[in-house]
Design goal:
Elements (H helix, E strand, L loop, with lengths): L8 H16 L3 H24 L1
Length: 52
Amino acid sequence: MKKGKKYDAVAEVRKIREELSLKYWGHPDLLLKDLKAVRERYSQRLKDARNH
């Protein structure tokens, strides 16, 4: 990595992926619950955007 780089997007994605894998590894029920919550939240946003 270059020393002059202030933000490294690839490193950030790797860090996030590692955190999520630790959270969800061996807990598929938690993963499905969180995915369902996200799906509901964004479908509501989509409905709101279509109505305005």
